[in-house]
Amino acid sequence: MEIQIIRAEYGHLECLLPLFNSYRKFYEQSQDENHARSYLKDRMTNDEAVIYLAALTNDPKKFVGFVLLYPTFDSVEMAAVCVLHDLFVDPDYRRHGIGKLLMVAAEDFCRQQNAARIDLATATGNKKAQALYESLGYLRDTDFYQYSLEL
To answer: Cβ neighbours of residue 120 under 8 Å, at least 6 residues apart?
Structure first.
């Protein structure tokens, strides 16, 4: 199976939507296609996110995975950083290296932006994702706790 990685543009929104909803379903979130469409549209049209899609080379309109980055900054380091917030591969296409290809595309983008690092988080039980990240050189943070305040 050959895969090509492309940077998503606004015209890819409807193709991205089923993958995005499947990702959210994996994290037990409610399915609201209109809200998801609006959310992604805003991120894309406002240049607030960078999204790469994995497409089948023999069927370039068939997307089987995505990675979503939020470029931001770190005040302590006074540098650009990227937050890799979402990585998803259609379950029917897993175990073919697609996640790794998407991660490499994300890293390449962040390097081109002169980002100091890529930050990401994953569920504590998501051992497959943890194994992928660690195989690519990501280190589990032992210096900082992550906190969140629900609003």
So the answer is: 83, 84, 85, 87, 133, 138
Closest CA to 82 of 93, 102, 68: 68
In sequence order, which ranges of 55-126 are alpha helices (DSSP H)?
A: 98-112
Judge whether 109 lies within some domain: yes
pLDDT tens digits for range 52-79: 999 998 887 889 999 999 999 999 999 9
Tokens 């068939």 belong to 62
Q: Is residue 119 part of a domain?
A: yes
Q: How many domains are contained in the chain? A: 1
Residue with the two structure tokens 């629900």: 150
pTM: 0.92
CATH number at residue 123: 3.40.630.30
Residue 145 belongs to a domain? no
Give the DSSP H/E element, type plus range, for residue 64. strand 59-74
Single-letter residue type at 43: R
* 59-74/3-7 β-pairing: unpaired
